[in-house]
Every structure is written in structure tokens, then in C-alpha cells.
């Protein structure tokens, strides 16, 4: 058994941001990160890769280059979480014990849950922006489609970046429009509305209508036949089959099995944490943040950015090294790419409270916000967030007139 003062499970956005921020404050602190992947991804860029607006390589860096200096990188994957004995067992068999554990394992993409998908993904017109390898194929299809039917799917919530399924539709539709190609565009959504926050849902109803695309609600993709170009959806009235020339799939998502099968899981399988303190509801030396927790915020990098200071101070406090931690307010944001060059920046907090970081109407798609999404956010991610800088400003202000 190897002992660590702070053990971080998962070296994605949340895990590395916490590790860097802890080491920025206390360079000698014993911080270790368990992460099997040799690559690190900027996933919000994949929407732009799928739109042909960002090179694929801009969204990937070697894990060794982003692992914070001073952190020990355990190149293995978590196999068992044993909080009753303050231990984590990795796939290689080693046991790691800890004073404080931070769980940042992200969520699990269940590609296998859709019959026939894995066999055809990346071919036969079947693509997904939810995978580094396949996002460029979305743009390739949008650039070559000569008409016919393009279908876009959205699985049951919660998923990471709830707006990403429709962003794929808008950028594809815009590409087709610019090429002068007339295609039938359809959005098959398992849920009942375009977005979880009503004021933004109403704006997005207009955006999708503006492309002449048809939204279908209560439609859940269950099978794909790539060779035949057919997709099957479960609906309240039974299964229906639709022909396609292009199909953009967003896979069903869940808590990682390793969490679901551990004492850290709440009823739905996610890490059970206090929604403001992000400390585990049972084990007070365990914290959770990012996509793997059961907090009812949007699973986004924007949320992680504002969760990091809460977890960092919570961890230091637990080690008797810090002050009271700021409470997390449920902030999340979704930059909806409604066309090439314009973004509707949806910002909100717990309980669907609408907020805005800028003194501008957040319902309005803007070129300025496209510049943020395309240039500023990626730069801030690589240069600031991964380097442990705290950039909670500007403070979003509540907009009660838009909240209901
Ligand atoms: P991740 O960054 O996914 O990291 C999880 C890490 O855990 C990974 O490195 C993984 O390898 C590791 N791991 C998994 N299993 C194990 C194991 N057993 N042991 C050890 N390590 C393990 N967010 C926004 O804010 N704005 C956007 O516009 C936006 N767009 C998006 C578009 C797409 C297509 C996608 C896919 C996501 C988008 N997001 C966006 C969401 C954002 O990327 C995530 O919310 C964010 O990455 C969550 O961070 P995380 O650390 O919780 O998970």
C-alpha cells in the first residue's frame, strides 16, 4: 500500500484543475493523480471540430505535458473505491491509501447501449461529436451531403453539455445552407423540450425552426443499421424506423461503473455530494466534482471551473491547512453555436436561475460570444484552469425577469 495525503481519481478537466490549484497554493503538498489516458482532451472543442471551425489536434495534448509539476501521476485506472478503509485499488493491483480523496472520474459514454452503433460509427454516414476520432467526420458529411435526410439524436438526461446534440445540428444546417444544399433535417430528442431552462428553450425553438428542421420529442434512439441507412427510435407509441443519409448520434450516458458499484454512489449511481460544499454526504474526507457527481447542475467545464475553488479549500480545510471554502452555487454555462460565427451563451445556476456574466441580454446570439468560444475559452482552459489559476470573475448577476 502506498499512502498519499491527497489522492485524485481521474486526471481530466476537474482532476487536473484541482491538482494544479492545490499545488499552486502548497507546492510541497503530496498530491497524486490516478489517470490511465496518455492524452488529455479539451472536449468543448469537439463541437467546433464537428463544424469544421477548429482543427482536431487543437483539442488534444499529451497527458505528460499537462500533468501539473509536483503531482505524482499514477498511470493506471481505478478498479475499486473503498472509502471505509480510505483506500483505492487500481487495475494493476496496487492499493493506494489517502487522507483525502477527490473523485473526478467524469461520466461514462455507453456506445454499446445502441444496437449496431459501434459497428458503423465513423462510416455509412454515422458520426458523433462526442468522440475525438469521429468529430471530423461530422464536418466531412456536412461538406459532402448532396441532400436527403440528416438526423440528430439526444439521449436521456443527464448528459455532459446538454446543448451539444443540437449544436451539431445547427452547425451542419448552416454548412448545408451556405453550400446551397436542401436536406431534410430532424432532431430526435428523448426529452420533452429543447433545453432545461425555459427562457433558453424558447429561443432555441426559434433557432431550430429558422433552419426548417423538425424537432421530435420523446424519441429515443435504440438501434442503427449503417448498411441500410436506418435508425430505430423507441416512442410512447412503439418503435419507429427512419431512413437517413447522415446520422449524428449522442450516446446514452451514466455514472462510471466503478462509482456505481462503490459505497460512494447515491441512488442513481453518481457520487453523492452536498450540492454546495461538494463534500461526500457520508465520508467527510471525500470530495467529488465534475461530471461524476449527483449535483443538479449542467455537466459542463464551466461548472467545473466554479467548483474547483470549493473543493480546493474544502480539501485544505480537511488537512487543517485552510480557511472556510466558498460555496458552489450551481453555476453552469452552455455556449450554443447557433451558426458559424454566432453563439447564444446560456448561463444559469441551481433551480434554473438565469444569470449573466456580461451586461448583455443572454437570449441574443452574438459574434462576441463566438470569439470567446472559439479563441478565449480554449486559451483560458490550457493557460489558466489547468495551471490552477482561480478565475471566478466576472461574477454572474441574477436576471430574475428571465427566470421562471
Ligand atoms: P473529464 O474531463 O471527462 O475527465 C474524466 C477523466 O477520468 C478522464 O481523463 C478519464 O480518462 C478518467 N477516467 C475515467 N475512468 C477512470 C478510471 N477508472 N480510473 C482513473 N481515471 C479514469 N463544457 C462546457 O463548459 N462548454 C462546452 O461548450 C462543452 N461542450 C462539450 C461538447 C462535447 C462534445 C463534450 C463531449 C463535452 C462538452 N463539455 C462542455 C463538457 C465538458 O467537457 C465536461 O463537463 C468536462 O470535461 C468535465 O470534466 P471532468 O473532469 O468531470 O470529466
From TrEMBL:
Q: Which UniProt keywords apply?
A: Oxidoreductase
Superkingdom of origin: Bacteria
**Name recorded for this polypeptide:** 1-deoxy-D-xylulose-5-phosphate reductoisomerase protein
Q: What class of enzyme is it?
A: oxidoreductase
Pfam family of the protein (one)? Pyr_redox_2
Source species of the chain: Salinisphaera shabanensis E1L3A
- List GO BP terms, alphabetically: sulfide oxidation, using sulfide:quinone oxidoreductase
GO MF term (any one): 1-deoxy-D-xylulose-5-phosphate reductoisomerase activity
What are the FAD/NAD(P)-binding domain coordinates in residue numbering? 5-117
**Record's keyword annotation contains Oxidoreductase:** yes
What EC number(s) is this enzyme filed under?
1.1.1.267
